[in-house]
Amino acid sequence: MSVIRFENVTKKYEDHTVLQDFDLEVRRGETMVLLGGSGSGKSTILKMVVGLVSPDSGAVFVDGQEITRLREEDLMPIRRKIGIVFQEGALFDSLTVRENVAYRILESDGYTMEEVDDWVFRLLGFVGMQDAIDKMPSELSGGMKRRVAIARALMGSPRIMLYDEPTAGLDPITSRITCELIMRLRDLEGVTGILVTNDLQAVRALSGEVSAKAPDGTVGFKPVPPETTLRNTRFVMLKDGRVHYEGGDPSREGGDEYVREFLA
Length: 264
Ligand SMILES: Nc1ncnc2c1ncn2[C@@H]1O[C@H](COP(=O)(O)OP(=O)(O)O)[C@@H](O)[C@H]1O
Ligand SMILES: [Mg+2]
Fold this sequence. Notes:
alpha/beta; binds adenosine-5'-diphosphate
């Protein structure tokens, strides 16, 4: 079953058409890598999945439920299923790292402070940021902020993750750590995701490696043989408001001139 589906979606801003009769399907457990030039509508698509932007026509479905015409309060349970790492990775400047990560859960009821704290600590461990738990965002580097933003998005264990250019502007090491987090969620947790990126290094990692857990619990990454296509990773490239390419890693599997040039 598809977890995210766009059906015949059209979106215009004044007379500028961003999406035109656009269809997209993301299946359970799959990470879709969404490629496209600046202004091609990538961020708009992610915002539509959480109902922050509405299509002019057509429909968007999450877990089989049409969300296109839901009221704000009916969108809340949908948004709880989805973790989103925004393009800017924005944290709340006046909150500590701990409070930033806990934010999604404090809004809801039913957890003790200890449970929330424990959860925050584990998520910060996942992104390698436990030492920063009591720091303010202003004390962190760009890469550290991005990792905290990922931890925050993971609060509540969403089964769907949306990442908007999560490695843009990061140094190679932090970028690599971010890709590894995304691969772990994909391969070991079965999280369904959309990853918007123009980062060739990230594309190579996502399509060329899988994560695996050793008996001692440590996680490693191994290369996928060149002739193999990962079944849990599909690529979609946007152009002129539509899907221009769909399939395996276009830098391995051809694609046309436009796609190759884009990834060059
Ligand atoms: N709120 C808005 N008002 C007007 N135009 C917008 C708005 N949001 C996005 N756009 C325009 O829509 C197009 C797609 O934007 P976006 O989805 O952010 O592209 P991408 O993430 O692929 O760079 C761009 O031309 C952008 O300028
Ligand atoms: Mg964008």
